UniProtKB/TrEMBL annotation:
<dbReference type="InterPro" id="IPR046357">
    <property type="entry name" value="PPIase_dom_sf"/>
</dbReference>
<keyword id="KW-0732">Signal</keyword>
<dbReference type="Pfam" id="PF00254">
    <property type="entry name" value="FKBP_C"/>
</dbReference>
<keyword id="KW-0697">Rotamase</keyword>
<feature type="signal peptide">
    <location>
        <begin position="1"/>
        <end position="17"/>
    </location>
</feature>
<comment type="similarity">
    <text>Belongs to the FKBP-type PPIase family.</text>
</comment>
<protein>
    <recommendedName>
        <fullName>Peptidyl-prolyl cis-trans isomerase</fullName>
        <ecNumber>5.2.1.8</ecNumber>
    </recommendedName>
</protein>
<keyword id="KW-0413">Isomerase</keyword>
<dbReference type="InterPro" id="IPR001179">
    <property type="entry name" value="PPIase_FKBP_dom"/>
</dbReference>
<feature type="domain" description="PPIase FKBP-type">
    <location>
        <begin position="73"/>
        <end position="154"/>
    </location>
</feature>
Amino acid sequence: MKRYFLLLVLVIAGLSACQKVQTTTQAKNQAVIDDQKIQDYIKANNITATKDPATGVYYHITNAGTDPKPNALSTVKVTYTYGYLNGLSIGATNGVQAKVSAFIAGLQAGIPKIGTGGRILLIIPSGQAYGSGEVNGIPGNSVLVYTLDLDGVTAN
């Protein structure tokens, strides 16, 4: 009986490991697809953008703002609009206050690049946004475009 249980555990563990490898491969493939879409968007819209090498998020700082600049522990007040690469708007916020760490990964990467009063354009690959699953009506693997204003920073 113990042998069958051990065998069952090993089979399940093996299958789980295979699924994780497949998921990692799919994520890497999607990152390549997203990057090409972003590069095409940047070219088509004549945007000068920089790619963050750690996250794959592209950004263009319209206004650098002034100190203080936030960090991951800071509470910030932001106003932003966001949408898809095709120009379709998803929504907008006005004066949202939250810790930088509470935002999606792509915003966490971009917000600290500007200071109070700053504005940044962020083009966020799906892996740094909502990933492969649908979230709040946003389809999986969606690249998102944000224009974000940093209205205020409370350093922590």
